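User: Here's a chain of 275 residues. Predict its fold as tokens.
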Amino acid sequence: MWTHAPWQGRLLPHPLAPRERLRAYATWCNAVEGNTTFYATPSRETVATWAEQTSPDFRFVLKLPKPITHERGLGDVGPLLSTFLTAMEPLRERAHTFWIQLPPSFSPAALGTLGSFLRRLPREHRYAVEVRDRTFFENTSAAQALERALAGIDAEWITFDTTVLFAQRPTSEAESEAWLKKPRMPRRVRALTANPVVRYLGRDDPEQTAAGWRPWADAVVQWLREGRSPTVFLHTPDNADALLLARRFHDDVRARVPDLEPLAEPMPVGPPTLF
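Assistant: Prediction complete.
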């Protein structure tokens, strides 16, 4: 996401060398979703540049590669997983959570496979699972069975909330595309671990997006008061204002939890001027 074209020259300095773009993004937000790792495992050298551009407390939530979760269905993936984890080693503590996004075809009937896979994972890392079969959200027994599987290694259940996006018909090209591509997922406000992860997708209208995140602001305030350390990712269909909205969400929470550390000042887009 740190190379998102609409941000360049508007919210992030442009042009920037590829090895400086994450550094600029990290002055806006202190976490990032690692979606690109789903499509290809980067080289260890590339990952080392990510570490160089971020502070030790920066959070990467990194998606496991597609061959592991979608193509092989979590089975016979030992060498693939080892290659991925080895490539991520330069991040050290920055590798906050490894994100196991499962396909819509993953149903409660496959929980045995998931449980077996989770039990084989190295315990020095933190993991979170995202499911997209609505049975897990609408059937109490299925939800409880998933929670038991996750509890075995203290893994989190990632919520991807698209309720605001689908609350009314699209009003832009980006929203229409999101309607076609994004899953219709319900809102599930429940943390299983000390490190909940939330993915929220709003609308292109910033005010509609902000109105829709109120349940999440309430949840994050409560989690912080309980001593948890949540990570929240805010998206809109075009993501043009996502950085601004992320900081606005943080400000909303910090107004109610004054002890929450402020975010850094964003890197100036252009050179300083006298006037």
